[in-house]
Amino acid sequence: xxxxxxxxxxxxxxxxxxxxxxxxxxxxxxxxxxxxxxxxxxxxxxxxxxxxxxxxxxxxxxxxxxxxxxxxxxxxxxxxxxxxxxxxxxxxxxxxxxxxxxxxxxxxxxxxxxxxxxxxxxxxxxxxxxxxxxxxxxxxxxxxxxxxxxxxxxxxxxxxxxxxxxxxxxxxxxxxxxxxxxxxxxxxxxxxxxxxxxxxxxxxxxxxxxxxxxxxxxxxxxxxxxxxxxxxxxxxxxxxxxxxxxxxxxxxxxxxxxxxxxxxxxxxxxxxxxxxxxxxxxxxxxxxxxxxxxxxxxxxxxxxxxxxxxxxxxxxxxxxxxxxxxxxxxxxxxxxxxxxxxxxxxxxxxxxxxxxxxxxxxxxxxxxxxxxxxxxxxxxxxxxxxxxxxxxxxxxxxxxxxxxxxxxxxxxxxxxxxxxxxxxxxxxxxxxxxxxxxxxxxxxxxxxxxxxxxxxxxxxxxxxxxxxxxxx
Length: 472
Prior knowledge:
Layout: H1 5-11, H2 16-37, H3 42-64, H4 68-94, H5 97-111, H6 114-145, H7 159-169, H8 173-178, H9 185-188, H10 195-215, H11 217-242, H12 245-260, H13 262-267, H14 269-292, H15 297-303, H16 305-314, H17 317-330, H18 336-345, H19 353-369, H20 376-389, H21 399-411, H22 422-425, H23 427-453, H24 458-462
C-alpha cells in the first residue's frame, strides 16, 4: 500500500485491490463494447451487464474481506471509482427527470379534452392507490410467512439517518403535504425530490395555456412551439444517454455489493428474502391484472425488461422515468396522454415497492415488537395508512425511509423506528427490488388506465419490439 496523501486522498488508488478493481471494471466495459460492435441486442447486453456486475461485486468483496487494507482503504476507494461510472451515468439520466415531468404534464393537460382530464385523474389515482393497497397486503403477508421478528433487526441508525427520520417524524400529516406546495419555482426545478411540486407548477402553466389558446391564441402560439421543440430536444438527449446504460449497470450493481459487503447481506438474509418474495408476489399480481384487461403478461415483461433492469440497478424511479415513458409509448401502445400522466405521477404516488410493500413490512414488524395485537382491524389500519401515506413520496433513492416514517407515524410508532435500524443498513440491496416494483406498477397502471379510457393501442402492444435506441 502507498500511504502518500496523493494516492490515498487525491488519486484514491493506494493499494492493489483498488487498482485491480478498476482494471476489472474497464475490462467489463470493454467486453460490453465488443458485444455492441457485434450488434448483440440491447436486451441481451443488459442481462450480461447485470450478471457481470453481480459477479464482479461478489468476487471483489469475497477476495478482499479478510484484508485490513481492503476494509480500511480499498472498499472506499473502489466505491469512489465505480461511482464515477455508475452514479455518473445515473446523474445523466436524472438531469432529464425534471424537464421530462414538466413538459409531459403540460402536454397532457393542454392536449387532453376537458372532460377526459377529470376522468384520467380519477382513474389514475384509483389505479395507483389500488395497487398500493394490494402491495401493502402483500407486505403484511410476507412478514407472517417468514415469521419475521422486529427484535432480529435491532441496530443503530447513523446520525444523519436518525436526524432525517426525526425531522420527518416531527411533521404532522397536514404539514407533510403542505411542504409539497411550491413557493419557489427555481428551487423546485433544481431538486429531483420535488416531483409533486413540479407537477403542480406544470399543471398551473398548462391551465393558463389552455385559457390563452382561446383568448389570445396568437400570443401563446410561439410558447407552444418552444415547448414542442424542447420536448423533441430532451428526447434526443435521452436517446443518447440510454446508449450508455449497460456500462452504468455494471458499475452500479457491483458497487452496491462492494459498498455493503456480502456478510452484511447474509446477516439480513431473512428480511431480504421476505421483501423480494413480496416483490415476486406483486409481479404475479400484475400478471392477473394484465390478464383481466386482456393484455398478454409475457409480452409486457418482455418489452419492459430493460426498463426494469435499469430501475433495479439505478434505485431511482425518477431517474428511470424518461425510459419508462419511452417504453410505454413506443413498445406498449399506451397513448401519449396516459403514459405521460400516469407514468409521471407514478414516480411520486402509489409506489408499490417503496411506499407499499416496504412500509407495511416495517409497520407489522414494529407492531409485533411492541406487543400490539396483530388482528384484522390492525391489518386494515396498516393498509389504509400505507395507501394514504404513499401520496406525494418522491421516487428518488432514500424515498422508502420517508414512506416508512410516515407510515409508522400514522400507526403511532414513529418513535420506535430505530428499533429496526439494521434494516436501513442494507437499504441499497432491498431498494433495488423496491424500485423495480415501483416502475413495474406504474407501467401496469398506465396500461389499465389507457384500456379503461379506450385509447390503448393493442397493435403496438402485440407487435414485435422495435430496435433499441443504440441500434436504430
